[in-house]
Amino acid sequence: MKTWITAAIASACAASAWAFPDKPITFVVPFAAGGPADKVARDLAEVMRKGLNSQTIVIENVAGAGGTLGAAKVAKAAGDGYMLLVHHIGMATSPALYRTLPYKTLDDFEYLGMIAEVPMTLIGRPNLPANNFPELVKWLEANRGKINLANAGLGAASHLCGLLLQQSLKIEMTTVPYKGTAPALTDLLGGQVDLLCDQTTNTSGQIEAGKVKAYAVTTMKPLTTPVLARLPTLDSQGLKGFNVAIWYGLYAPRGTPKAVQDLLNTALRSGLKDADFIRRQESQGAVVISDARLTSAEHKKFVEAEINKWGPAIKAAGQYAD
Ligand code: ASP
């Protein structure tokens, strides 16, 4: 009898995984619409749905508190595969930045695989008098106490980059938090804030159009797209060892059935092989993941390593939120 019940449950689970998904899936993006996280999530939704019975994937922007509100929403959602999180390096920096987080980064999620790595750029408002990085440093020195640096809140990639920049230059700036770097960029273009450090997927179009001042890339190696190749690295401009490249991953709430996780992982893997998806990401400086970090175990291992890598630097900077 017991064996029969177990077999019935197993076959019901297999049948429901087989039918998955039979209704739209939601990708929670923990930042504002139109920004880099939103853009990569929308591009991914387009290619992943092909492997998910062509179901619609809805994007829900749950922005605020540097990405932690959206992450908390998914951590508390039902583990049925219908609500997923697209998040970036903030998964790994938030544990050091928040005294209390409403979720446990390593315990409350199923790790479905990584999506892409993206470098960042340091850009300035169009009317900022400095035209290159050495001129910017002089301008910053001369304007101590008056500099505004936009970011997407404590826990955002732009926050991390800005924090390291202030530390490396030994110049404090007033940070202006937004719900994402789409609205931050709008204010930068309007001259309301001075500087922003953001993903190339948000900035390369503005750099190409000459609408912002572009000072540097944040990786050790120069970038190769025609637009970004002309920018020097911060490392080569005197900020030795400055190296921030961010990454995106896909997450489900803990307890999502393994069969559903496997279907999502398969759809993710085939989506990331889509030639148009790859071309689109690469043209903006991103690198689509194609290595072992597409497995749950390696994705989680990588995030854990990132928590250990950034935690001490963030704690040393003494920035916390409650
Ligand atoms: N790029 C933003 C960040 O600073 C977030 C976003 O709007 O995608 O993390």
What does this protein look like?
The structure is a single chain. The protein has two domains: 24-117 and 245-317, Bordetella uptake gene, domain 1 (D-Maltodextrin-Binding Protein, domain 2); 119-237, Periplasmic binding protein-like II (D-Maltodextrin-Binding Protein, domain 2, 3-Layer(aba) Sandwich), CATH 3.40.190. Helices cover 42% and strands 19% of the residues. It has helices at residues 2-19, 36-48, 68-75, 90-97, 133-142, 157-169, 181-189, 200-208, 258-272, 275-283, 296-317, and strands at residues 25-29, 57-61, 83-87, 109-124, 148-151, 174-177, 195-199, 213-217, 245-253, 287-288. Strands 1, 2, 3, 4, 5, 6, 7, 8, 9 and 10 form a ten-stranded mixed sheet that branches. α2 crosses α9 and α4 packs parallel to α11 (296-317). The chain is globular. Bound molecules: aspartic acid. The site of aspartic acid has 16 residues, from α2, α6, α7 and β7.
Residue stretches low in confidence (pLDDT < 50, at least 5 long) are 1-15
Overall geometry:
globular
Please count the beta strands (DSSP E, at least 2 residues each). Answer: 10
Question: What is the name of the CATH topology of the largest domain?
Answer: D-Maltodextrin-Binding Protein, domain 2
Q: What's this model, at a glance?
A:
The chain has eleven helices and ten strands. It has 322 residues and is of the alpha/beta class.
